[in-house]
Fold this sequence. Notes:
Blueprint: E1 9-13, E2 30-34, H1 39-51, H2 62-69, H3 72-76, H4 83-88, H5 98-115, E3 136-142, E4 145-154, E5 157-162, E6 167-175, E7 178-183, E8 186-189
Antiparallel strand pairs: 1-2, 3-4, 4-5, 5-6, 6-7, 7-8
Protein name: biotin carboxylase
EC number: 6.3.4.14
Keywords: ATP-binding, Biotin, Ligase, Nucleotide-binding
Amino acid sequence: MAEPSGTGIRVDSSLLADTVVGSDYDPMLSKVIAHGANREQALERLDRALAHTAILGVQTNVEFLRFLLADERVRAGDLDTALLDERLADFVPLAAPDDVFAAAGLYVQQALSRRAAGSLWAAPSGWRVGGVTAPVRTAMQTPLRTETVSVFGLPEGAHVQVGDGEMLLASVQLAPGVMSVTVDGLRRDY
C-alpha cells in the first residue's frame, strides 16, 4: 500500500497493511484532498497524488477518478449530479499490467518466506537437488484479468513469469508501510 503525500496533499485514511475490509461499514476507506494556489494547480496535484496511490487487495476507484479529472467540465468546475452517470459509460478500465501481477506474486513469496523463517524445508525457494528451482505458483485475479504468477527463487532475487509471458528478473524489499519491487530494472513502491 502506498498513499500519496506532498505539497498541497492531505490523505484521510483508515487503511493499514493487512486490514480486513468488510462490507458492514462505509465503503470510503480513504480520501485524498488537494489544494493549490488555483483550481488548475489543485487538480494537477490531485491527479499526481492519485497516480502515486497503490492499494493492493481491494478494488478502488482511483483509475475512474483520474479519468474524471481529465474531463473538461470537471476542470472548469461545471459539475452537476448527472456527470457521473454520463461519464461512466465512456470509462474503459485498463487491465492490470504484468508488473502489478509480478509485484503481487513477489509479495506472496515474501510472506511465505517470512512464515518459514528458520526452516529450510518450509522455505518456498523451489530448491531441488542438482536441478533448476521449481517455481512457487500463485493464482491471481483482478476485475479484468486472471493470471498464474510463477516465482523462481527467493524474492530478494527471483525470476517471475506472469501467465505464459516472458521471464522477468525481479526483487522485492519490504520496509514499514512500503514494498519496493524492481522488475527488469524498473522500481515501483507499493
